[in-house]
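Subgroup meeting minutes
Present: P.N., E.W., G.H.
Scribe: E.W.

1. P.N. recapped why we're keeping a running log of single-chain structure predictions: easier to compare across weeks, and new members can see raw inputs and outputs side by side.
2. G.H. added today's entry (312 aa).
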Amino acid sequence: MRLRTLLIWLAVVPIVALGVQSALAANRLLEQSGHLRADVESGERLGVPLYRLMVAMQSERTLTAAHWAGTAVPEDVMRERRAATDQAATGFRRSWAPGSAVSEVADRRLLEVAQGLDDLDAYRERTDSGSGSADSTLVYYSGVIGQMIRFYQDELSHMEDGGLSEDTRVVTAMFAASEMVAQEDMILAQAGPSRTLTTSRFADFVNAVGAQRYLYDTWIVPYLPDAQNDLYAQMVRSGAWQTKMRIESAVLAEQSITDDGVKLPRDVNGWRAAQEQWGPQLSTLNADRSRAGPCWRAPTPGRPTSRRRSPG
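Output recorded in log:
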């Protein structure tokens, strides 16, 4: 082979190899970009209506628990709460069709949510007539809500970008923490006018308090951007949230054991009024973080792939 030809080949081979490598890298980036676009579109289409449905069902669950416990619940209040759930359920059904989620697992979660909603009227009728049991009814509500939270976990767990994965962990942790708070709300409603819980329900309350405090302290607050951190700070400094914390601590420390179960302190009587104030604040924080999170928005060009290390 002539020297000139050899030199040409020595120059061409690395260029060809580099071109192949660049083409493969470009294909990977395009594939990741396609996945990310699908994630964003799915989040905008499914995530927001599902969150509205989750909040509505949590609220209806608490009112249902109060009704079963013998608390006087005005019919118009119950009717209004159920109508809000029905409206949110309609929005969810319009946003989702089988096979439209990003993953098969996430799609299966949504199918289970839809199938659960088919039983909603039956459980409402049992509540109104007093047939069945309070426990089975509340387990039903919690089961449907649990499928919604698991959808977010399944839908967001496959994101490849490091920074986006961190964001998804914060969002899913916030939904899990807010469900623990909502369960506290439901359990205290179950105590009814007698302020008495079974020992198992009291244990559930203790677990819910511990879980939500751990999630906020360890997995949420350290990773909130400034805007949401300000919202969280405003909420926890409010008198309503301080009342929440005080009542939780009182229930944990000042309860008494009776023949009927666990008697809660009189402080719990202030829970409902406080919840009417901090409840909307908590929903605003969750919704604000969700809209700013990866499943509701397109990625910002040049966004760093990670910000901080997760605990542990």
